[in-house]
Amino acid sequence: MVATEPQSETTPATPAGPGLLGQLIRFGLIGGFCALLDLGTYSLLRAIGMDAVPWVDVARACSFVVGTTTAFFLNRRFTFAGGRRDGGAQIGGFVLLYVVTFFVAVGVNQLMLHVLAVSAWQSTLAWVVSQAGATVINFVMLKWVVFRERPVKEN
């Protein structure tokens, strides 16, 4: 059967992404998964001997790279509609963003290891605080800079 009705000119060329609430929910779910991956990597590396200075910073750096790289690709695919375009520019924006959040995460982790009382939970709490700061920076920058939706130019 052939449609005889004209197509609406308001039909978008690409499907719209989820709204802000949908993005926050997806970002939260993906972030939760990647945070567990990050924490698991950090804990594993510390368990195999990377728990003293400077190796604890190397462990945090490695776990950060594992978690945030996974988060970038999952968020690009499932959270931000703008992630489906401009691959090269997005990778550059991703690298710049994650260099900044890398130093924030590792620096805050190190600060918290010095500030928090020594306990069985010290390293986990330090990781949580550093991860929280990195997560806020990542959502804001991914949404409004790296994966921003640009208006479609009409010919």
UniProtKB/TrEMBL annotation:
Domain (GtrA/DPMS transmembrane) spans 26-147
Q: Which InterPro entries match?
A: GtrA_CellWall_Glycosyl, GtrA_DPMS_TM
Q: Which residues cross the membrane?
A: 27-49, 55-74, 95-118, 124-146
UniProt keywords (A-Z) are: Membrane, Transmembrane, Transmembrane helix
Instruction: Give the subcellular location.
Output: Membrane
Task: Give membrane topology per the record.
Answer: Multi-pass membrane protein
Do you know which Pfam families this protein is assigned to? Answer: GtrA_DPMS_TM
Q: Which GO CC annotations does the UniProt entry carry?
A: plasma membrane
The answer on whether this UniProt entry bears the keyword Cell membrane reads no
Quick one: signal sequence residues? none
**Tell me, which GO biological process terms does this entry list?**
polysaccharide biosynthetic process
This protein's major location comes to membrane
Recorded family membership: Belongs to the GtrA family.
Stored PANTHER family: ARABINOGALACTAN BIOSYNTHESIS RECRUITING PROTEIN RV3789, PROPHAGE BACTOPRENOL-LINKED GLUCOSE TRANSLOCASE HOMOLOG
Which protein are we looking at? GtrA family protein
Which source organism?
Amycolatopsis panacis
